[in-house]
Write a structure and sequence with these properties.
- By secondary structure, the protein is mainly alpha-helical.
- It has a domain of 60 residues.
- It contains five helices and two strands; from the N terminus they run E-E-H-H-H-H-H.
- A two-stranded antiparallel sheet has the order 1-2.
- Helix 2 packs across helix 5 and helix 3 packs antiparallel against helix 5.
- The longest helix is centred in the C-terminal third of the chain and has 20 residues.
- It is elongated and about 50 Å long.
């Protein structure tokens, strides 16, 4: 499996920090692309959510959006834990590893 996502001009790969910084400087939001990049790293949570949805779809009168809230929250938390630091480190003022002194 390749960890490359289309990044407009190229692909996001091991050089993603400079690509993210460039996007931010151009006023573009890199979050959607980083979500695509990070989601495969959360496969266990993604599979857990898919199993939950399939189980509830097999039941009558079941709404998977309401009943699979916790597996979905776990998936989103995992993806956000991957995405947020990548954006945070690319922000201007974070050259020393933190924004506020």
């Amino acid at each position: 499996m390749s960890n490359q996502v289309n990044f407009g001009e190229g692909k996001i790969n091991e050089n993603y920090p400079s690509a993210i910084k460039t996007m931010i400087e151009q006023g573009k939001d890199p979050k959607d692309l980083l979500i695509q990049y990070c989601r495969p790293q959360c496969k266990w949570y993604d599979d857990k959510y898919d199993r939950c949805v399939k189980a509830f779809l097999s039941l009558k009168n079941a709404d998977p959006e309401k009943n699979c809230m916790y597996p979905y929250r776990d998936l989103v938390t995992c993806v956000e834990a991957c995405v947020q630091p990548k954006i945070q480190h690319a922000l201007k003022g974070n050259e020393h590893g933190f924004i506020f002194h």
